[in-house]
Amino acid sequence: MLREFIPVLFSIGVAVAIAVGAIVVALILGKVGQRNQGKDLAYECGKDPIGGGSARFSVKFYLVAMIFILFDIEVIFMYPWAVSLMEFHRSGLGWQVFGLMLVFVLLVEVGHWYAYKKGVFDWNKRG
User: Is the full-model pTM beyond 0.70?
Assistant: First the structure.
């Protein structure tokens, strides 16, 4: 019975050996290179880390992010609906399902219209 587990134990041993070997090699090679202030700085997007770590964002940034999520959720719900619409049509429920999706899209568009009237999409407006 133990003979059946030998390949599994061998695989676990190889995985542990690779993990420990990678850590040991990283420790050895990491201490070989010369350190300077440029290498010790945090690197993010090619920009020098100047200023505070938590920059303030405008509220408009978060509003646009929420509207993007709204579009994203709309597409997530519409794709499976569009795929299965033909099946609903064959069963005689096609127009009812189409009407429900139309109500959903209209409700989402009312939200977009409200955001537009509030000036969320106007980047030149302060606030």
Answer: no
